Amino acid sequence: MSRPALWGLMAEFATADALLAAARAAHAAGYRRAEAYSPFAVEGLAEAVGFTGSRVPLFTLLGALAGGIGGYFLQWYAAVVDFPVNVGGRPLNSWPMFVPITFEMGVLGGAFAAVIAMLVGSGLPRLRHPLFAAPDFDLAMRNRFFLCLRADEPVFDREKAEDFLRGLQPLLCVEVAA
C-alpha cells in the first residue's frame, strides 16, 4: 500500500519564542521555503524563515506608469489625431488639460496591478490548502505556533526532516498530505 503524496512535515510549538528559534534553525539548515504560522505577528519571524520582501510595490509602480501613459495616450490620440478641434487658437496637444485624467488612470492602473500582484503572489484564489486538513492546525488562530517544512524543497528528505523537526522538541510533529 502506497503512502499519499506528501506536501510537508509540520511541527507544533507552544510559544512564539520556540517557533522563532525553530524557524531560525530551519533556515540555517537550508530550508528556504519553510512556512511559519502563528496567531499573532511575531517580530523577526519573517526574517527567520527567509522572507525578504514583496514585489507588490514594484508591480504597483509599473501598473501606475502603464495606466498614466495609457490615459495620456488616449487623450492625446482623441484630441490630436482622431478628432482635432481648434478651441480659441490653443494648441491641440495642450498637456495641462490631460493631467487630471492621466493622474486618475495612473491611480487606477496602480490599484489594479497591486490587487493582481497580491493575488498571484499569495497563490489566491485557492479553495483548498493541504495544511487546513492537518490535525490541530485550527489552533494556529488561537494559541499554537506551527512550522512547516515543504516537501518540494531541494534539501527535503523525509527522514532527515522529521529527525530535524523532532530535534526541535515540538509538541507534535505530523505529516501533511498533498
SSE diagram, text form:
Layout: E1 6-13, H1 16-28, E2 35-37, H2 45-48, H3 56-82, H4 99-122, E3 145-150, H5 158-167, E4 172-177
Antiparallel strand pairs: 1-3, 1-4, 2-3
Helix pairs in contact: 3-4
Task: Note down, in words, how this protein is organized.
There is one protein chain. With 178 residues, the chain is α+β, with helices and mostly antiparallel strands. 44% of the residues lie in helices and 13% in strands.
The number of distinct helices, counting runs of at least 4 residues, comes to: 5
- Outline: elongated
Helix content: 40-55%
Unreliable segments of 5+ consecutive residues: none
The assigned structural class equals alpha+beta
The proportion of strand residues reads 5-15%
Terminal Cα span: 17 Å
Based on the structure, what is the oligomeric state of the protein chains? single chain
As laid out across the biggest beta sheet, the strand order is: 2-3-1-4
Mean pLDDT: 90
- What is the H/E string? EHEHHHEHE
The radius of gyration computed from the alpha-carbon positions, rounded to a whole number of angstroms, is 25 Å
Question: Largest sheet, if any?
Answer: 4 strands, antiparallel
Number of strand segments: 4
List keywords for this structure.
178 residues; alpha+beta; elongated
